[in-house]
Every structure is written in C-alpha cells, then in structure tokens.
Amino acid sequence: MTTPLPHPDRPILAIVGHGMVAHHCVAQLVAGGALARYRIEIYGEESLPAYDRVHLSEYFAGRDAASLRLGDAADYQHDGLALHLGVKVTALDRAGHTLATSGGPRHYDKLILATGSYPFVPPVEGAAATSRLVYRTLDDLDQIRAAAAGARRGVVVGGGLLGLEAANALRQLGLEAHVVEFAPRLMPAQLDAEGSAALRARIEALGVHVHVSRATESIKPGQRYRHRMNFVGGEALETDLVVFSAGIRPRDELPKIGGLAMGARGGVAIDACCRTSDPDIYAIGECAVWEGQTFGLVAPGYQMARVAAAQLCGDDSLRFQGADMSTKLKLLGVDVGSIGDAHGATPGARSYRYVDEAGASYRRVVVSADGKRILGAILVGDNSYYDTLLQYTVNAMAAPAEPASLILPSTSGAPLLGADALPDSAVVCSCHNVDKGAIRAAIDGGCGTLGEVKACTKASTGCGGCAALLKQVFEHEQTRRGVTVDKSLCEHFAHTRQELYAMVRVGAIESFDELLRKHGRGSVGCEICKPVVASILASCWNQPIQDPKRVVLQDTNDMFMANMQKNGTYSVVPRIAGGEITPDKLVALGRIGQKYGLYTKITGGQRIDFFGAQLHELPDIWAELIEAGFETGHAYGKSTRTVKSCVGSTWCRYGVQDSVKMALTLENRYKGLRAPHKLKFAVSGCTRECAEAQSKDIGVIATERGWNLYVCGNGGMRPRHAELFATDLDDAGLIRAIDRLLMFYIRTADKLQRTSVWRESLEGGLEYLKEVVLDDSLGLGAELEAQMQAVVDNYECEWANALSDPEKLKRFRTFVNQRGGDPDIVFVDERGQKRPADMARPAPATTAVQDGKKIIPLIEESVS
Q1: Which of 247, 268, 296 finishes a domain?
Q2: List of E strands, 468-577
Q3: Where in the numbering of this chain does the Nitrite/Sulfite reductase ferredoxin-like domain appear (predicted)?
Q4: Rounded CA gap, 843 and 840, in Å?
Q5: From CA 257, how far away is CA 355, in angstroms rounded?
C-alpha cells in the first residue's frame, strides 16, 4: 500500500481495477487536469502494475513481466495520485460512498469501475488444479508453465481467439497441443464456415490438433496421461493439462452488491457518458454494458476511458456511441481478419469469396444490396488486404465498380486504397482513436518524422496493427506538402539497399570505392553504408570477407571473424553441420577448449561455442580447429548460421525422412551465404517437429511423400511463426524453391531486415511470394538459381583464407608492438569454467604498460 496522500480538501476519485483500460483512463485524467479537481486513488487486485494483455502470449516466447508493463513508474508519481496494488475491493456501499477493501474501508466521491472480465469455466465434473487452468493473467500463465513441466500433451477448451492463443502457448512450452471447441467451427464469432476451414487447415499443418463439435462432460484420471476428458457421445481424449478458454464474463460483483442497474446478461449498464445508474459512478471496459452490448477488445475500452475522463474533467462533448469490433490478428503465425458485418447479416447483403484450398487461404467481402457499400470482410492467410477493406467499411466509402477486385490476388490488378483516398475522419489507429486528420494536424504542428508523429498522437503505440497504414499516411502527407520523403541509405548514397544491390549486380561492381565513385558521394563512407555494401558485395560475389577491398567495411565481428564479448574477448563457433558430429571431433573440441582455457557451451543451434579467446589467440585456435576437420561457422556474420535437425528416420521410430541428411545438404549448400540479416534453418523428420522448424527463416518438415517447406519465421525479440509455403516437395524441388526464395530476399530486402519483416512488407503477401518463387511469375527463376549456384561454387572458409595470408594475420594482434594479451581482462571461476569478472571494464587507452614497456592497441590503428 502506498502512503495516504495529502490534499483532504479535494474530493476522492477512486478507480477499481488496473488493467489496460484503467491505465489509459488514468493517463487521460492526468492530461485533462483531473488532479486539480480530485485526489485519485487506484486499486489493483494484481500485485503487478498494468501490463499489455494484447501481447500476453509473448510471455512464453521470452518476454518478461517488466517488458509487458504499460508506461513506467513516473506515470504514477504525481502529487495527488496513489496506486494501491494487491488490494482487492470486495464491496460497494453507495449510500456511504464507501469501498470495502482487503486493506480496510475506503471513501470515494466519484468512482470508476474498470474491473474487466474473468474467464468463463463451464461446470465440468472433475475439473480441478491442472485440469482447470485458465489463460487470462500473468499469474495464470505462470501456473500453466508450472503445469507444463514434465507434461507431454495439453488441451485448450475453446476455439476462439484466446483459445488459439492459449494453444500457441502450449506449443511454445513444447507440448502436443489440442483444441476442443463446442461449436462446429473455430472462431465462430469472427469467421464463417469457409474461413474457419481455412484457419483449421493452417493450424493443423502447424501440428495443432483440432476437435470441433465436442462438449466436455467430465474429467477423470487418465491412464497414459494425467487426465481423461470425456465428451458427450462417448469419445474421450487424454491429456496432462486442460486450459479453459471458453469465453469471458464481466467482473460485475461490485455493481451487483451496490444495486446498480445491470445488463440482461450481466455487466453494469452505462449510458453514452459511461455513467451508471448512479451519477457518481462510471464504468469502462469489459465490465460495462452499453445498449445491451459488451466489448471484449481494448480499443472500445480506450474509447470509454476517454469519455469517462472527459466527463470527470468537465468536458461534456464526448460520447460513447458503440465501437467497431473489427479485428486484425495473427494466430499461431496465421493472419486472420474480421471486419464489420463479416457474416453478411445485413438484409439484402451479398458476398464475394476467394477460396484457395491448396494454400488454405480465404477472403470474403460483404457488400450492400445495391453493391455501393462495403459492409464487412473475412480474411484468413493474408492480412495485406485488411487496411483497405477496413477503411471502405468504417468510412462508408463508395465501393469500386467491381468489389471482388478488393480480395483478388494483387497481381490481378486489385485496386489498393491509397492514403490520398482516405477522408480526414478515417480512423488510422483504433486503439487510440487517431484519425487521418489528427496525423495531418501533428505534421502541421511540426512533427517531421514518423517517430514524432507517434509520440504526439499515440498512433501505432497500442496493438501496432496500424503501423503500415500510419507510415503510408505520413509519407503521403509529407509528399503532398512538397517535402521529399528521403529513402536514402545514408548521406553517401541517395538510394535504397535494393537499388544498390541492382547497381552492384548489373554493373559487376566489386568494391565499395567503385560503387561510391559511380553512384555515391564523398570519399570514405560511414558506419551505415559500409556494412550494407559489404553485405551486398558478399551476397553477389561471395569473396572472402578479409579481402583488402572489403575488410575496411566491416564491423568488429566480421573484421576479426569472431563475436566480441562484453569483456573484450571473442567467441569462436566452428560449423557442426546439421548438429552431426563424430566422437573424434568431440574429443578434438574438448582438447582445444582445455588448451586455451575457453568457456564451452552448446548453443541452441546444435553447435559448440568457445568463449574467452583473446584476439591474438584466434588464428591459433582456428588452425587447430581446421586441422581437426572443422571450418568457420559464420556465427559472426549476417549470413547462414545453422541448420538444426532431429535424427529423423535413421534412428527415430516416428521419422519418415532422413532429416540429418537433408540438414547436411542444406547447410553445406548455403553456408557462408551473406544476407541482409542472419539466417537460421531447421529440418524435422516428422510432424512431431523436434527440430522446431516452424520458428526458423527456412523450416523443412518431412512428410510421407517428401518435404513441407515453411518460410520467414524467427525467434528473438519479436517471434514469428514460419508460414507453410509448399507441400510434399522432392529433394530437387525443395532446394530449387529455397534457392529462389533466398536470392529474391537478398535482392529485395531492406538493410538489416529479417525474412519475417521482409515477408510482412511484401505487397501481395505470401501468395505473391509463392507466385514469384513457385510459379516463376516474374520469369526470374533461372536467374535466381544461377546466382545462388555462383555463391555456392565460390565458397571458401574465411578462417582458412586468413590463415594462408601473412598480411591478413597481422591484424590479429591485441597490441602493435606486443604479442601478448590484454592484462586488463579478468576472469572468475563458476561451475568449473571461467567467465568474465563482474567489474567495470576500463575505457580503452591509447597506451598501456606491460613488463615495463609501452604497448599500443592495434584496434586503435587506422584500418583504411
């Protein structure tokens, strides 16, 4: 509990609940001057401050509670504002203007209820503990994680949005995931039968098992698993844990106790001012009911928060008049969109449908009886159509003469709705209710960059789904004002990376100096253009990174062909293709690690990483590794890193193809391939997916008839599932598809752009990429394959290349006039190995003293 605040002269505004909507309401109150009118007391039942529930599933993908937090501590450090966490409000006494809390009675003068909702769990006999988990809060997720320890299979009851999010969480925890849905299709509120079928096909291809038209009758102890779920009709399914995600219900205990008017199906009734039947009490978010409707999305909750805050600040102009419930989602890596009247319930409505059963894609656009209005849409598999369809729908814009063109593949000439066609009233960011007019006003007010527009308007700071449209509007408005939208790489090149790639390829340019002379300005370049051009040159010609023409372009890692660590030492990662290694090579690695006193760790990509090597030791370590049969693993470059594999059909009783052999083939083909960003591959020998191929840039999964290819996934800060690209490919077809896709990526991606971001930025989406790569729609197939083959043919181990050249070896000295190491590097022992000491590393000096002699760091020398 925080210390009670002064200002007894001010009435108390109490807020019960501290979720996303309450947090937004507090921000609006502070901005509106409410602290001059009230003392604001906020009561949050959870022990954590407000966090981002929209991205809750990312908690299982590496994000922690701190990174999900909304705002920062400074938001609640205003005089007259107090946040009480871990305090439950149990009763409401309207007559006495009192709240009963776990910390004692609390007075209020005005009250905002923002209690949200709770997950509905149907009354199922035997549901308890690990068979009655829910997916709502961070505490719930911690319980799921604990239950997953030692588990093999998990079931989610509920095939709606949150249910599929929960199924994805179970997959991320390594469980075999099942979804049980009472309705005959997934996401029945958002999707029609065809859309649901497409979604089901896609998520089943990802390994999630779907059971529809199933009603759980009871849960009993299982035989092979912890629990046995018994369904009406006699069927059963065993599992280790059960997560219920069968919908939500308003948290309306307090208004019921207080005798407020309620909705017919629960929730506290509010008017257009978000006021309840008591004029001193407001309600916002999922606990509120407006004209019989509840709103389970964050954007309507934010709208209510703005209305309530305005009312309490003396502004009577805002009204809540309902909200658009359109949703743009990515479920298990699958694009899903639902807009307006998606089911065509409007009398006389007609629909156009685009169905791609082979690719499990589906699009539907609903138009008015006269064909002049777009009423709604459904998208499964490709949300690149979403922004255009949403703007036609919410702004009542005249439909094109051929409405079907809005959902046909973009290569057939589907009209795209440009920023110029949007009226000022068009809402760009629904989370913060930012329309095009507000963005224009921000630019007129001096916002000259996209970041400044975001900071000023809050657009694209909610769910982020409007980022592409916001960028389009910003660039259009800048152009309309006569401001050139600068897409230059840097001050030395007035070109994009894609344009520079074309210049290098067409002009057969082999050096930075030549490119700068012909197509740039200045004489030396900078830290932006040098690495980009180096990557382009390496991607085109695959010449050793240590060549004199290129070494001056590299960052430290590429320059020394090892990753610099926090204490100034380097890590060395030899290639272990496919994770396959002989005992003799393991012994050699152990001997080298012992000899040089290196910290040793097995990486997530099935390789062995040596840490703690000093610069002058690198050539000696490489020499011994090469003698033992290893080569560089390119862990230091924006290039192919690893191809992870399971043992496949050679050992595993479930394997249907030799995944190790294919992993070796792929790694040996693409090793050393330089790209805009690092590349990771994986090959699984069956659909059990032990190699985790669906989280990689290139993922390959064996089938009875060949290989399924997944593309453009990644882990990291922003995880993204790879998407199914082609099925049942033979070996030659698989390699041909990967050759084309990777070279097309290298040719068209922006600097430092991962395959996942590149794929999302492609106009036309996955279908367009399939047409280019699989159908050769641009006629580039043979050219892309030839370019890849040239890269393969020119491969050379960069470590070996450096070892063969005395001039290159001169670089690998810590000091110019001293062959020893850096005396300032200090290690400590931990778990039988050494690690860097926890101490501040001294700033680099131009000289040091060792054995009574001045020594000069080589890294301070000019490298031109």
Answers
A1: 247
A2: 563-564, 570-572
A3: 565-627
A4: 9
A5: 51
Tokens (6 digits) for 57? 């599933």
Radius of gyration of the chain (CA): 30
CATH number at residue 277: 3.50.50.60
Q: Do 602 and 742 lie in a common domain? A: yes
| In a domain? residue 766 | yes
| 651 and 741 housed in the same domain | yes
Of 363, 373, 370, the C-alpha closest to 348 is 370
Is 686 labelled a binding residue? yes
Helix/strand/coil for 807 = helix
554: pLDDT strictly greater than 60: no
Is 343 in the same domain as 390? Answer: yes
Tokens read off for 371: 């064909």
Angle, helices 450-457/467-480, rounded to nearest 10 degrees? 110
Letter for the amino acid at 730?
D
Over residues 382-397, the pLDDT tens digits come to 887 888 898 888 888 8
Residue 461 in any domain: the answer is: yes
Secondary structure of 427-453 as H, E, C letters = EEECCCCEEHHHHHHHHHCCCCCHHHH
User: What letter represents residue 21's amino acid?
Assistant: V
pLDDT digits (tens, 9 = 90+) for 650-659: 999 889 999 9
- Together in a domain, 669 and 581: yes
Give the separation between CA 635 and CA 624, rounded to whole angstroms. 18
Per-residue pLDDT band for 636 (boundaries 50, 70, 90) equals confident
pLDDT at residue 502 greater than cutoff 50: yes
Residues in the chain: 864
Average pLDDT on 463-482 reads 77
Retrieve residue 852's tokens. Answer: 């009574």
| Segment 91-112 mean pLDDT | 95
DSSP annotation of 674: B
Sorting pLDDT into bands at 50, 70 and 90, what band is 107? very high
- The 3-state secondary structure of 159-226 reads CCHHHHHHHHHHHHCCCEEEEEECCCCCCCCCCCHHHHHHHHHHHHHCCCEEEECCCEEEEEECCCCC
200, 281: one domain: no
Mean pLDDT throughout 735-759? 93
Q: How far apart are CA 756 and CA 718, in angstroms?
A: 10
User: Is residue 690, in this structure, part of any structural domain at all?
Assistant: yes
Shared-domain flag, residues 607 and 622: yes
Residue after which a domain boundary falls, among 247, 280, 305: 247
Distance CA 838, CA 500 (A): 44
Is residue 820 assigned to a domain? no
Q: Are residues 366 and 424 in the same domain?
A: no
Domain tally, the chain: 6
Name the residue range of residue 452's domain: 417-483
pLDDT digits (tens, 9 = 90+) for 7-35: 457 899 999 999 999 999 999 999 999 99
Which has more pLDDT, 102 or 555? 102
Joined tokens for residue 526: 């900078």
Q: For residue 657, give the CATH number of its domain.
A: 3.30.413.10
Assess whether 741 and 788 both reside in one domain: yes
Residue 690 annotated as binding?
yes
pLDDT confidence of residue 64: 79
